[in-house]
Write a structure and sequence with these properties.
Chain lengths: 375, 377
């Protein structure tokens, strides 16, 4: 089931059976690249038009809507930074779904890896902060967060491979356990006694917090996410390991017959995915919240699933999609304030974009203009 | 496998296209809204029509909206994450807001504290009572002794209950919630010394399904008056009313949801406070950095009594309310035993509500005798 979700590309069906001339291949590549820009962009425009119709029914001029959206998301340097900040956690949590999807696994437990990663990071960061310089504290926290998140999702991977437990269900259920563990710890042994009405751990000293990207009001966590995406892309699309992993995703039985160590690949992929989620949690603690509390479970893990699907599980495509979501989120406030739209209208827009972009995928290969003529 | 590489290019290029579009729009003349009239911003953690915590604040904002020469901007469902920081900055930068009311408890640290340092000319007012003298002077906090209202709820519930079994649906075992549970129980026991309060902690502020389950299970056990401390009392009120139980409200009035079963409720009175603060701010006066109060200061109010409240109950409750308003009444007065038999407040000592620094009150961690339930150690 999962492999169809990943590989539902209509373009795959009309590949010519005979090897074409080099010029045709080149034209084909250009055509496909153009198609790859025009169709998603067209889908985005269609979604915005549909959303405009939707708000018009609420008695609001769609032009006001669009100008508020542009202003709130990308219309000024402030808005751009706002968008990037809100996109930052989504880059990593999306990878938690996108990477296992390459190997045919549907992991939706990013939220669990996120909170466990954040919890582990603060558990290591607090004792370290009294003894080590900030760089070391952050390194220790990042390792702890990635290790904990990695182990969390790898556990689901192991259950899948050796016990046949459906990883979609197990990662979802693990999320509830993860949030319960988080609450238990911050309301119990890790609680700062001074946090009376909002139980939380002790705070990380300011000096040990992750700072901003120089010249920007966006924390360095965004860069971690971008690096993770690029490494993941290279690993999955330009190494033999990645080829093997995607082969497992295409057909695990064929992969096993071909002599691939499917179990090992599944473990590595799920560990990497969990590490991405755990790192996101670490960044949330070390760059934003400064401590762990119930607020860590803010839903970034779930939004990450949406981002991964719209990015069609591609680690590089995750970046622009996360930024798109950050922008929608950033402009959502302005829609509420300037146009008196309820918060739910942003959810409506997200839903429209999700459906239209997924539906637009059936259009690939349907437009002759993007395809070179037959020989 | 090549299909994957084509996806890559496709979306990568789409992304590049998006960035290009950004560059174009960034240069377009969208001017910042420069506020000629003063702008006040309100930020809520949940929906502003939740019949609860957020609606109480939104009603306060609505009162400010009625004032002349001031503009109100609002945003709902803002989580206690970096998103609230960005919302505050967006209100300041794009709307020109000069006074902000970020109303959720978890907004204060670190978000309000950071923004207050970043924007020293903007005033930040937080509901929760967390401000201390070492925090920025352009930030402040206010809060109400709403357990006084829960005490009145308890008195009314004590009269109304036939079984003497009361129910309390609570979010988390934190001091503010425990004050309410204990005050409610003490109020009921003033009328019926054998009354008990069954408490169920759901674990979080907004868990509608668990809240409904808790209400149902308590009513199954014979509870006939229910109250609560969750963000939105809507589900508890509707479930109780449907099952034929009576209910005392919280945060704001839920009478409209159950006109027959609603007895009374402990409400915030932000409709009074917010216009007051906004007027002070517009006149250039200093809003107190730390402001608290109960019935006397008008920070809380009681919902009008419902049809099922007897004349006797009304009189008793009104008497106590008058004494609380005159500050001649202490709710947590020793000797007071907890429900494990230990002495919680020694004879002769009092936890006075107006004494904001009373640590025993602020860090309350016990359930009084009569509460059925237990706390984590």
């Amino acid at each position: 089931m999962t492999s169809e979700l990943i590989a539902g590309d209509a373009a795959a069906d009309d590949r010519p059976a005979v090897i074409p001339a080099e010029s045709v291949i080149r034209r084909d590549a250009i055509g496909r690249a153009a198609e790859a820009v025009v169709i998603p962009l067209g889908a985005l425009i269609v979604s915005l038009l549909l959303f405009g119709v939707f708000v018009a029914f609420a008695g609001i001029n769609p032009l006001d809507l669009y100008s508020a959206m542009v202003l709130g998301s990308f219309g000024s340097w402030f808005s751009v930074q706002n968008t990037l900040t809100l996109a930052s956690p989504l880059v990593l949590t999306a990878l938690c779904t996108a990477l296992p999807a390459q190997a045919g696994l549907m992991v939706i437990g990013g939220e669990g890896a996120f909170v466990i990663g954040g919890l582990a990071a603060i558990a290591v960061g607090l004792p370290l902060s009294t003894a080590a310089p900030p760089a070391l504290v952050q390194l220790g926290m990042a390792i702890a967060g990635m290790a904990a998140g990695g182990a969390w999702i790898a556990f689901a991977g192991a259950l899948r491979h050796w016990r046949g437990v459906n990883e979609t269900i197990s990662t979802l259920l693990l999320t509830y356990i993860g949030i319960a563990v988080l609450n238990h710890m911050v309301e119990g042994v890790m609680r700062d006694p001074a946090s009376l009405n909002k139980p939380a751990t002790h705070a990380l000293p300011n000096a040990d917090m992750i700072g901003n990207i120089p010249g920007m009001d966006v924390h360095m966590g965004l860069i971690y996410g971008l690096i993770f995406c690029v490494i993941a892309y290279i690993l999955f699309f330009h190494t033999t390991f990645g080829f093997a992993a995607r082969m497992v995703g295409g057909n695990p039985r064929a992969a096993r017959l071909a002599g691939l160590a499917v179990g090992r690949i599944v473990m590595i992929v799920t560990t990497l995915a969990g590490a991405a989620g755990g790192l996101a949690g670490m960044v949330e603690v070390a760059a934003v919240q400064g401590r762990a509390s119930a607020t860590l479970a803010a839903g970034y893990g779930y939004t990450g699933i949406l981002v991964a699907f719209i990015a069609r599980q591609n680690p590089l495509a995750v970046i622009p999609v996360a930024i798109l979501f950050g922008g929608i989120n950033a402009s959502g406030g302005l829609l509420q304030r300037r146009l008196d739209l309820p918060d739910a209208s942003v959810l409506v827009l997200q839903g429209i974009i999700f459906v239209v972009i997924l539906a637009s995928e059936t259009l690939f290969g349907r437009f002759k203009i993007f395809r070179p003529k037959e020989n | 496998m090549s299909m994957h590489t084509s996806i890559t290019r496709r979306l990568l290029l789409a992304g590049l296209g998006g960035v290009g579009a950004t560059a174009i729009t960034a240069n377009m003349p969208f001017g910042h809204a420069q506020a000629a009239t003063p702008v006040v911003g309100f930020i809520y953690v949940g929906p502003r029509d939740d019949f609860g915590y957020n609606q109480a604040h939104a009603e306060g904002a609505a009162a400010v909206k009625k004032m002349k020469a001031v503009k109100v901007v609002e945003e709902e469902r803002i989580p206690e994450t970096v998103q609230v920081a960005k919302t505050m900055e967006s209100m300041i930068n794009l709307d020109g807001a000069g006074l902000l009311f970020p109303t959720s408890f978890g907004y204060f640290n670190p978000y309000i504290l950071n923004e207050a340092k970043k924007y020293p000319k903007v005033r930040f007012e937080h509901a929760g009572g967390l401000w201390t003298p070492k925090d920025p002077k352009n930030a402040g906090s206010y809060f109400g002794y709403i357990f006084e209202g829960q005490y009145i709820n308890g008195i009314i519930a004590g009269y109304a209950s036939k079984s003497g079994k009361l129910g309390f649906v609570a979010a988390k075992p934190i001091p503010q919630v425990l004050q309410n549970i204990n005050a409610f129980t003490l109020g009921a026991r003033l009328v019926n010394p054998k009354a008990t309060t069954q408490v169920i902690f759901t674990g979080d502020w907004s868990l509608p399904v668990k809240e409904a389950e808790a209400t149902n299970s308590m009513i199954d056990q014979g509870v006939d008056v229910v109250t609560m401390h969750v963000d939105s009392p809507k589900v508890v009120v509707q479930t109780a009313a449907k099952r034929g139980a009576m209910v005392c409200g919280y945060h704001c009035s839920q009478a409209a949801l159950a006109p027959q079963s609603y007895l009374t409720g402990a409400e915030w009175n932000w409709t009074d406070l917010y216009p007051k603060f906004v007027t002070m701010w517009m006149k250039g006066e200093t809003i107190p950095n730390f402001y608290r109060g109960g019935f006397k200061e008008g920070l809380i109010k009681q919902s009008p009594y419902g049809p099922k409240v007897s004349a006797e109950a009304r009189k008793h409750a009104d008497d106590v309310k008058a004494k609380l308003t005159a500050q001649q009444y202490v709710i947590f007065k020793g000797p007071l035993k907890d429900n494990t038999g230990k002495m919680a407040v020694a004879g002769g000592s009092e936890l006075i509500q107006t004494n904001a620094t009373d640590e025993k009150l602020e860090s309350m961690h016990f359930l009084v005798d009569g509460v059925l339930g237990s706390l984590p150690a």
